[in-house]
Amino acid sequence: MFLCRLKARRQIQHLLNTPDVTAYLGRLARQELHRVPHGDTVADLLAVLAVEALAALRTELVRRLIEARRLEKFRLLDRDYLVTLDGTGHLVLGERPTRFTEGCLSQTLANGETLYYRPVLEAKLVTRKGLALSMETEFLENPPRREGQSEQTYKQDCELKGAYRLLARLKDAFPHLPICLLLDGLYACEPIFALVERCGWRFIIVLKEGSLPTVHSEFYALAAQRPENTTTHATKTARQVLRRVNAIDHDGRPLHVLECVETPRDGSKPTTWLWVTNIPVTRENAIPLANEGGRQRWRTENEGFNVQKNGGYEMEHAYAEAPQAARNFYLLLQIAHLLAQVFEAHLGGKKHVAHHYGSLQNLARLLLEAFRTDRLPSPQDVDAFLDIPIQVRLDVDTS
Questions:
Q1: Considering only CA atoms, which of 184, 14, 227 is closest in space to residue 86?
Q2: Whether 163 contacts 121, CB under 8 Å
Q3: Structural domain boundaries enclosing 83
Q4: Is 391 a domain residue?
Q5: What is the predicted pLDDT for the residue at 151?
Q6: How many domains, in total, are found in the chain?
Q7: Percent helix, strand and coil across the chain, each to the nearest 5
Q8: How distant, in Å, are the alpha carbons of 167, 386, 392 from that of 389?
Q9: Domain for residue 384, yes or no?
């Protein structure tokens, strides 16, 4: 359903429940199928299937790509894999409470109604060529309210709380992986700095005005006094000016700050980025830290969530209201998107796909037609195919 971008559970019955697809899936699964399971049957199964099982499968797929050295070329400064952390809306249940709103976060609207929703926090491995691969997921949910607990003392779950849980699991899943976290300004705080330090990771975090105010003001004061710490860089479309100040003290912790001001050659308005990092910034590494590091954080939203919401996967669609089924549908979507990105790279990247097939959604339609109409492979054909090594190059431009 997700690989073919069918957008709704009911499409399983309308588009996949054919004798040919049944036989095809049975051959691939190496078991006899009498029919493709109904979408409701799938939802019933996912309501009892352990979420940890699908999460582990998703993480294992990423681990195999790393161990096969398919992502080696994308390490920052030839050292760190880039991992972003970002939250997004996953499932909105509306204003009227149902039996499935337990654990939902809630928001009181201006008209007095209460909106119930289930957000999610994602850790994605991103690359400068456009990949955004889900590594870990934290479903943000409220704990049960204790008996007699007042509204004032009951605190909802939030993205920052979820980050501590997610990052601990990420460290357990990839204990020796060198990681550089790309984070937004929400995470510019001492508890995150300390957690990243304990994990042995590095970070590049957006430094917003009002966030770490003493670090922010000290950077601009010192940068004006140290013109030798300025680097210029020209690209095909813009001119960049990068300024750096190292070892700004923050409660005994030295932090390094990097600013990048980019002026487009077409005369449009300059854009300024400002980051705080635990990587000492030098003249040699300032440009890759900015362009191959900090600026890649947006890929989680663009190549990740935006594609999953608007590119045929319909991430915000209510595939199930039951909490456990909804979580498992979400994880299956992440697995499907991971496989699709590898498939697209194997075909030469998104530009190549757009040139030859029109769009990625057209490619998904052709995949559906292949399931529905292609010659059914024999068991021997399947075994022979699985034994053929296939080289997939992930360094094509998939953005």
A1: 184
A2: yes
A3: 38-346
A4: no
A5: 61
A6: 1
A7: 40, 20, 35
A8: 34, 8, 10
A9: no
- Residue 26 contacts residue 41 (beta carbons within 8 Å): no
In one-letter notation, the amino acid at residue 194 is: A
Tell me the sheet residues that pair with 104. none
H helices of 140-294, in order, are 159-173, 190-199, 213-225, 286-288
Measured CA to CA, the distance from residue 318 to residue 60 in angstroms comes to 27
pTM of the model: 0.93
* Most distant CA atoms of the chain, gap in Å: 76
Question: Is residue 172 assigned to a domain?
Answer: yes
- pLDDT digit string, tens, across residues 10-58: 999 999 999 989 988 888 888 889 999 999 999 999 999 999 999 999 9
* CA atoms 335, 49, 382, 22: torsion sign: negative
Residue 23 lies in a domain: no
Per residue in 69-119, pLDDT tens? 999 999 999 999 999 999 998 888 777 667 788 888 888 888 888 888 889
Take residue 25 and report the two structure tokens written for it. 């899936």
Handedness of CA 45, 48, 52, 55 (dihedral sign): positive
SS3 112: coil
For residue 335, what is the domain's CATH number? 3.90.350.10
